[in-house]
Each structure stands twice: as structure tokens, then as C-alpha cells.
Amino acid sequence: MNHPCSTFHLHTRAMKAVWLCLPIVIVSIATASCAASPETWKTEVACGGQGFTVESHCRKSGKPFEANECVADQSLSNGSHLVRVPEAAPSKGAAPLFAVAWGCAQARGQHFLTLSYVSGQGRSDEDELAEAFSLELKSVADKALLVEIFRNEDKGAHGRIRSILPDGEVSK
Q: Across-strand partners of 42?
């Protein structure tokens, strides 16, 4: 009845082998996922008839409401120029900021690309920032011009940048 080649006997032996190897597989998967290097996520953006790319280096969190794990090394390029973003230096001791949204606005007859940043740490003055760039990737420092740009931002194109925020969640 319990012949060594019977289906039941083979199935039982196979299940024992699976259960004995399962902890090794789980440990291997956990080790591999913890040691995985960040992926390069590219977000293509269009503003004023020109294309831009925002590059983020992140690992997906795997949980719906948990921030992705990103390296504080994002860049913005227009094909001929590349800048690290955010350009504004964070306050001493502040958490790194990550671009999460973009917008395109017109002010004074020109198009400007805007980037919105969050730290993923909460909602304080140092956890959010917004910057504006000319199409040549020059950072806008003129306060009056910045007010005009951000006032007109909602009228133009805008979208999400894939980075620290979990998929489907954007702060704007």
C-alpha cells in the first residue's frame, strides 16, 4: 500500500523538501530585496514646447501608503543641460527633499517649469519647497516673478513625478 513510488509517498517527500527549504528561500528573498540597489525612474515632462526629464533613484516600498526609499540625488535635464534638484540648499539638519510634482506656467511672456518637493517626513516649513526654472534650466530667484509664476501654475500643464511618494499619491 505504501509503495515508495506511490503518488502519496512521492507527494509527502516533496512537501517535506519544500518545507525544509522554505526558510532558506524566504531568507534569500529578504536579503536580496534589502540589498537591491535603487532603480532609475524617469519622468518625462513637457513645458513650453520643450521636453524635460526628471530622474529619481528609488526602491519601491511595496506597501500602499509607505514612502518609497529614494537617494537624495535627483536631476532635471532638457537634453543639453542638467541640474541637480532641488537647487535650494536645505537648512542644516533638515531632511532631504524630493521632487514629487511638476507644473508649467506662463509669466511675463515666458514659460517656466515648476517643481514641488516634499521630504516625506511630515508637514513643517522645512518639509516642503517649490522652485521655478526657465526653459534653459536657470533657477528663478526674483520673488515677484516667482509669485506670478506660481499664481499662473494651475492654468498650465502639470503632473506627478515618480519618486518618494507611493504610487497614486501626489502632493500638489
A: 55
Q: What is the pLDDT of residues 10-29, one digit of tens each?
A: 333 433 433 333 333 333 33
Q: Which residues contact 136 (CB under 8 A, 6 or more apart)?
A: 78, 81
Distance between CA atoms of 33 and 108, rounded to whole angstroms? 49
The sign one gets for the Cα dihedral 136, 137, 138, 143 is positive
Q: Are 143 and 135 in contact (CB under 8 A)?
A: no
Domain boundaries, the chain: 1-36, 39-160
CB of 9 closer than 8 Å to CB of 3:
yes
Which set of grid coordinates corresponds to residue 38?
A: 535603487
Neighbour count for residue 129 (Cβ, 10 Å) = 19
Distance CA(105)–CA(75), nearest Å, equals 20
The region, left, alpha or beta by phi > 0 then psi within -120 to 50, assigned to residue 79 is left
Residue keyed to cell 533638515: 94
* pLDDT tens digit sequence for 29-87: 333 345 478 999 999 999 999 999 999 999 998 888 889 999 999 999 999 999 999 98
CB atoms near residue 88 (< 10 Å): 13
How far is residue 89 from each of residues 74, 84, 85, 86, 103, measured CA to CA in Å? 13, 11, 9, 7, 21
